[in-house]
Amino acid sequence: MEAGIVGLPNVGKSTLFNALTSAGAHAANYPFATIEPNVGVVPIPDPRLATLEEHIPTQKVIPASLKIVDIAGLVRGASTGEGLGNQFLSHIRETDAIVQVVRCFEEAPGGEEITHVDGTIDPLRDIETIEIELVLADLQTVEGSLEKAKRSARSQEEEALLRLELLEKLHPVLAEGRPAREADIGSNPKSPGLLKGLGLITTKPQMFVMNVSDDDVLGEGPLAQKVRELAEQRGSEAVPVCARIEEELSELDEADRLEMLTDYGMDEPALAKLARAVYSLLGQQSFYTAGEKEIRAWTVHQGASAPEAAGVIHTDFQRGFIRAEVFSVADLQEYGSEKSIREAGKLRVEGKDYVMQDADVCHFLFNV
After folding, report:
1. Which DSSP symbol is given to 322?
2. Reported pTM
3. 40 - beta bridge partners?
C-alpha cells in the first residue's frame, strides 16, 4: 500500500511526513523509518496485536505497514511543468491513494508568521487549486493517448476498440474539470484494467488531512469544518492533525507522550487515526498469523478469498492451497488460548471459497 502526500507550499506537508516517519522509527519493535529522502514506511496502529501477544507468547510482533511518499513540487502550473513538474507527476502516479494536506490554521504556534503561497488562508481554494492541477495532468495524458488509440482501433481488435471508447468517455469529463473517477466507463470487465493501465491520477481514492493549530486539535474550527463538510459531500474522509504536535509526540518516550496527549485532551496521536483512515480508504483489512516466532498482521483487500490471503504470505501458499484453519481475535479473548478454542469447537476449517473477515487469525495448509 502506498499513499502520496500532496499539498501547496507551507501547509505543513513535510512536517507531517517527518512526524509519520519519525513515529514509525521510534515505535517499539517496529523496524520502520525513512527509506528514501521522500519515502517512509510506517506501521498501522492496531491494538489487536497486543491482544494476540497477551494470549500467544512470541518473539516479535510485526504490524501491517503503509508506504508514505512526500510528493514535492505541487504548485499552480505543475501540470505544465512549473515547480518539479514531470517529477511530481511520476511520483504521484505510482501511489495507490492521495492524501491532500490542507492548511486550516490562520497563525502558526508561537505567533510565527507562515506566509501562504496565495497570501490568504482558504482551504477550499487550496483544494481546488490542487485538484485542477491533477485533472489537467490527466487531461494531457488522455489527449496524448487519443490519436494513437484511434490509429490502433482501425485494426478492429476488441481491446483497441475498447481502449478508444474508454478514452473518449474520459476526455469530456476531464475537459469539464472533473476527476476521472466520475466518468462512466461502462460494464465491460476489461475496462477497469485498461483504466488502471492509463495511470490517471484522479482515479485514485483521495482523503484530506486538515492541518490545524494546537488550540484546535479536534478540528472544530471554521476552516476545518469547511473541509469536513466537503469530504462528507464526497463520501471521503477528513482527519484533523496538528502536524507540529505530532512531530513533537513522535520524538518523545512513552511516558512523556502520554502526558502530552493528556494535556491536549487526545486519546492517541492523530497520526494513528490518519494511518487507519488511509488503510480504510484503500479498502484494506487485516488478518493475522500467530505463533512462538512471530505474530504478524497481513494486509488483504476486503472481499479477498482464503487462497488470495494465503498468497499474500507466499505465492506457493496460494498455488497449493488446501484449507485454512481460522479463528478470530475475539475468540481468543473469550477462550484465552488456541487450544481452548479448538476444544470448544470454535476453530473453523475453511475452503477455497471462504471470504476473509477482518481480524481473522489463520493457519494455512498447502501442498505444492
Report:
1. E
2. 0.80
3. 34, 68
Q: Tell me the three cell numbers of residue 231.
A: 469530504
| Alpha-carbon 171 to chain mean position | 27
Residue 253: per-residue pLDDT: 85
Cβ atoms of 4 and 69 within 8 Å: the answer is yes
The two beta strands, 348-350 and 321-328, are antiparallel
Cβ proximity of 93 and 1 under 8 Å: no
Burial class of 189 by CB neighbour count within 10 A (0 to 12, 13 to 18, 19+): exposed
The low-confidence residues of the chain, meaning pLDDT below 50, are 24-35, 83-85
d(CA 306, CA 318): 8
In this structure, the number of other CB atoms found within 10 A of the CB of residue 210 comes to 27
Rounded Cα gap, residues 265 and 179, in angstroms: 38
Write the CA distances from 114 to 51, 84, 99, integer angstroms. Answer: 44, 22, 22
Cell of 177: 474539470
Residue by residue, DSSP assigns 62-84 as E--EEEEEE-----TTGGGT-TT
d(CA 177, CA 182): 11
Which grid coordinates are listed for 242? 496538528
Contact 43, 108 (CB under 8 A): no
Cα gap 20→7, rounded to integer Å: 16
- Scan for cell 497449493, then name that residue: 320
The predicted pLDDT at position 128 comes to 93
335 vs 347: CA distance, rounded Å: 11
Q: Hey, what's the cell of 259?
A: 502526558
* Residue-level pLDDT at 70: 84
Residue 353 per-residue DSSP state: T
Contact 1, 8 (CB under 8 A): no
Element (H, E) at 227: helix 222-234
